[in-house]
Amino acid sequence: MPRMLDLSDEVRAEIGDEEADRLLAGENAPGAYDCTSCRTPGDSERERTSTVLFVGDETAVLAFAHASCLPSQIVEVSEEQLQGAVRSITGEDTVPAQRPADTAPEQAVLGVTSGLVLIEGELHPALVVEPTGPIARPGAAPGGGDDFLPLLIEHGFMPVTSLAGVPPTLHGWSVLLAVGQLHAILQPGTSGGSPVAWWQAHQPLQVTDGWRAAANKLQSVLLYATPSGTVGRQPREDLLRGALDRAASRGQLVACAMPLAGT
């Protein structure tokens, strides 16, 4: 039976017209499925369903999601990260940090912390990104200082001196939730290509129900970034907010808002 599948041009080009036509005809696509984003059942025979292609170094995994949860798209990940995404479907959910695209292999890695931030009487879902050490500009000599914030400002992040208002949206970037968990922060691909992971969890990051509910309500996530040693791992959200306020007052905080992809 034909399926109500959304196949983006990028996904079609990756899997080929023949495979795409088989999917649309229902030969290789499931009728009932569990949405890769919200985990609730879906039915591609009765409701719009997106095809989401996770592409690794050697293999690719085609997943299905409610069209209202995720658009049809390609998400490029490393082979190890792809296996982590596959394992997440079976329930594994811890996360070590992954280095960003601008970080050289011998340098620090990123730590990512999720929390809720109160701004103008409303709770906003936020991610705080802090490296474990100084981040050098690619090609810079060792010991040349910390260029983490200047690199982010060049990407469009804005310096903030207080958390009194919502930072502007950084278009082309997004925060990917899939299977109800945080998988990646995506940045625009080169030459208008598919988004690529700026930060990608080896295994997905568990977020609280309150954080996910706020993200679903606002369809946006705030991202704050600080130099190494500025905020640290705070055990409570009030302590996290205090550390962010201090970083902002010292000129050590950049921020943006990013659209939410997934639920």
Index terms:
single chain, 263 residues, alpha/beta, eight-stranded mixed beta sheet, four-stranded mixed beta sheet, 14 strands, 32% strand, globular
Give a description of the structure:
By secondary structure, the chain is an alpha/beta fold. The chain has two domains: 5-76, no CATH class; 110-261, no CATH class. It is built from six helices and 14 strands. It has helices at residues 9-15, 17-25, 79-88, 148-155, 209-218, 237-249, and strands spanning 5-6, 32-34, 41-43, 49-55, 60-66, 73-76, 110-119, 122-131, 158-159, 174-178, 181-187, 196-205, 220-225, 254-261. The strands form three sheets. Strands 7, 8, 9, 10, 11, 12, 13 and 14 form an eight-stranded mixed beta sheet that branches. Strands 1, 4, 5 and 6 form a four-stranded mixed beta sheet that branches. Strands 2-3 form a two-stranded antiparallel sheet. It is globular, with a radius of gyration of 19 Å. Mean pLDDT is 79; it is low at 88-107.
Q: In percent terms, what proportion of residues is strand?
A: 25-35%
Coarse morphology: globular
* Category by helix and strand content: alpha/beta
Q: State the domain count.
A: 2
Task: Please state the CA-atom Rg, rounded to the nearest Å.
Answer: 19 Å
